[in-house]
Amino acid sequence: MIVEYIQHLSLPVPRWVKAMGFGREVVSMQARHERCREAWAPHLEAARALITEAAESCVKTDHAVILGSGLLLDIPLGELAARFERIDLIDLVHTRHVRRQAKAFGNVNIIEADISGAARSVYSLSMTAEPDGDRPAPPIGMKATSHAYIAATVEDTLANPSALIDLPVPAPDPALLDGANLVVSANLVSQLPLLLMGWIEAHCPWAEDDAKDAFARSVVDHHLALLQNFATDNPESRVALIAEVLRLVHDAGTPVRKIDALFGAQILNEGHEWWWDIAPRPEIDNDVDVKLRILGIPDLARAPQSRICRNTTLAAP
Ligand SMILES: C[S@@+](CC[C@H](N)C(=O)[O-])C[C@H]1O[C@@H](n2cnc3c(N)ncnc32)[C@H](O)[C@@H]1O
User: Fold this and answer.
1) What is the whole-number distance in angstroms between the Cα of residue 309 and the centre of ligand 1?
2) Residue 68 in contact with ligand 1 by CB distance below 6 A
3) Is 316 within the bounds of a domain?
4) Host domain of residue 80
């Protein structure tokens, strides 16, 4: 626990990213990987093989973009760095270890960016968020808040009165993918809404449940649309998607609870499927295990249409 605390303290990420919990998630993932290394190995191997399959099918090899590169556990970085001239690793959190790994190759860039296109706007929904730059000490009871920040918020609200009650519309940046011959969304899409939802729960008591659900779904939909649009507009490029579609809580194989990991969104293509034993007992509970159904599509534009709905409790295994 102390090791994780120190790792979190020393993460080279902006304050707002830490405040929203992105740093904590990556540090916990690292610790969980240490504890569950054996159980995770088949999943990580399957994910790496899928990325290799996608990379090998690329006609041009100038530029690869990895979305959600995280700890690089499921990324065959050595292979990619040998095949492509330039690789961009995109995530909100890059640990010092990941930065060192990237630097060792010479053609691997670290890019810190919000892939959802909604994180910063969600963060700003909180009146207790800290504004950028130096400022005089805040009044008692208004920790980390400045008059200028409140004034700007009031001004924005007067200009757009629904801004304080509407949750933002995600605006993922298509420029992140510009010029890529290979784009990989690496076990990311189901994660995109989670911390945003946590922040909204904690800071936006006015948000209705229906609005929150619709927001989570729209974050997933916008990411899938980002990938689909890029694949359609760039037919020579390859877009590979590795996505959690179902979370299964089970008791030694007997289902206890099925959770739709995509908040109702659908991936309507066939691909490779496998289980990720992410939390065998006692990782999160002494009495149950958790595994994830993973869908891996090496070439989104050319993947056959799916005949089943994987992430509903009705059709899922
Ligand atoms: C399950 S991990 C992916 C695993 C990663 N491919 C690996 O091998 O370690 C999800 C990753 O998505 C990143 N992430 C979540 N939301 C993000 C966002 N809005 N923008 C950028 N990265 C995000 C997290 O920081 C985390 O590294």
Assistant:
1) 25
2) yes
3) no
4) 36-117+180-302
So what's the pLDDT on residue 204?
84
| Ligand 1 centroid to residue 93 C-alpha, Å | 8
Using the predicted structure, report yes or no on whether residue 166 has a pLDDT greater than 70: yes
Question: CA-CA distance, 70 to 4, in Å (whole number)?
Answer: 16
289 pocket-lining for ligand 1 (C-beta < 6 Å)? no
Ligand 1 center to 149 CA (angstroms): 30
Q: Does residue 172 lie in a domain region?
A: no
177 in helix, strand or coil?
A: helix
90 close to 68: Cβ distance less than 8 angstroms: yes
For residue 219, give the amino acid letter: V
* pTM for the model: 0.89
Q: What is the pLDDT of residues 86-114, one digit of tens each?
A: 999 999 999 999 999 999 999 999 999 99
Indicate whether 225 belongs to any domain: yes
Q: What is the overall mean pLDDT for the chain?
A: 89
Q: How confident is the model at residue 185 (pLDDT cuts 50, 70, 90)?
A: very high
CATH code where residue 269 lies: 3.40.50
Counting the structural domains of the chain, the total is 1
Cα 91 to ligand 1 centroid, rounded to whole Å: 6
Answer yes or no: is the C-beta of 23 below 6 A from any ligand 1 atom: no
The one-letter amino acid at 240: A
CA-69 nearest atom, ligand 1: 6
Ligand 1 atom closest to Cα of residue 70:
27
Task: Provide the strand spans (E) within 100-209.
Answer: 108-112, 182-186
According to the model, what pLDDT value does residue 171 have? 96
Helix (H, G, I), strand (E, B) or coil at 218: helix
The number of the ligand 1 atom at minimal distance from the alpha carbon of 75 is 8
CA dihedral 123, 263, 33, 282 (to 10 degrees): 110
User: Is 266 contained in some domain?
Assistant: yes
